[in-house]
Amino acid sequence: MDGARPAPGGDQLWREADLGYVLILPSMLLWALHNQAWITVSRLQNTRGKRQIVDRGIEFEQVDREGNRDDQIILSAILLLLGAMYLPGGQHIPLWRTDGAVLLAVLHAGPVEFLYYWFHRALHHHFLYTRYHSHHHASIVTEPITSVIHPFAELLAYQLLFSIPMITCALTGTASIITFEIYLIYIDFMNNMGHCNFDLVPCWLFKWSPLSSISYIRHRFILFTILSSGHTTLFSCHSMTTYTTPWISHRTHCMKTHLRTKKKN
Ligand SMILES: [Zn+2]
């Protein structure tokens, strides 16, 4: 037909493709692979038994209960797809934007971690604990993937909470693919590390090295060790908050609890 626009060729199609949209599936596969790597390393470490925190085996019921761990990846994929399709500023996002990366980091370290901390403490209140959060703590010996084993409502709440920085970036036009990918990997890495049931960084390293003076890093890593032991003590402090100053006394208590647990083991 005269004047009609020719159908775009393969090259043009790729140039016009929304890379952020296209990369959602590969990044979800990478996520699953990342989880599997943590599970494998954690089970190997636990078999060696050298740096194990809770020195017990995993139960069959736990493996069955945690078998639906891909649910959260599927839910994330759906939410990311919805964002890439309908959220203003979520389409054709660039590979990198420094302002967006800074905005996301500030939002995560500030409001998101603050809300996460108090949300998690609320989940340990009897009312919410018996109805929701006890499902997560039913795994006494944690596996990395225990971090995402929650009832659906709780899972959805976490997803919405962690999407705050990403949605804000999109709405302010500062979203970028690499920032979002790093953010997803960061959250997943911290979650896996927090439940891996072995000391990723040995305690002696903190005790006898200059690292001990860097309280932020020290708190951070010890807290994740506590998280694993927290499933036996039902201790409620496993926030990944960066608020070292306001909660320092709380965390000192965490460390003492952790060290007591270590001694018993
Ligand atoms: Zn908890």
From TrEMBL:
BP terms from Gene Ontology: lipid biosynthetic process
Origin, by domain of life?
Answer: Eukaryota
List each copy of the Fatty acid hydroxylase domain by range: 109-205
TM spans, by residue?
A: 20-41, 73-89, 164-186
Membrane topology value:
Multi-pass membrane protein
Q: Which UniProt keywords apply?
A: Endoplasmic reticulum, Lyase, Membrane, NADP, Transmembrane, Transmembrane helix
Q: Where in the cell is it found?
A: Endoplasmic reticulum membrane
* Residue ranges that the Swiss-Prot or TrEMBL entry lists as coiled coil: none
One GO MF term: aldehyde oxygenase (deformylating) activity
Question: What EC number(s) does its UniProt record assign?
Answer: 4.1.99.5
GO CC, sorted alphabetically, is:
endoplasmic reticulum membrane
Q: Which Pfam families match?
A: FA_hydroxylase (PF04116)
Report whether NADP shows up as a keyword of the record: yes
List the catalysed reactions.
a long-chain fatty aldehyde + 2 NADPH + O2 + H(+) = a long-chain alkane + formate + 2 NADP(+) + H2O
- Give the quaternary structure: Homodimer.
Q: Which family, according to the similarity comment? A: Belongs to the sterol desaturase family.
Protein name, as recorded: aldehyde oxygenase (deformylating)
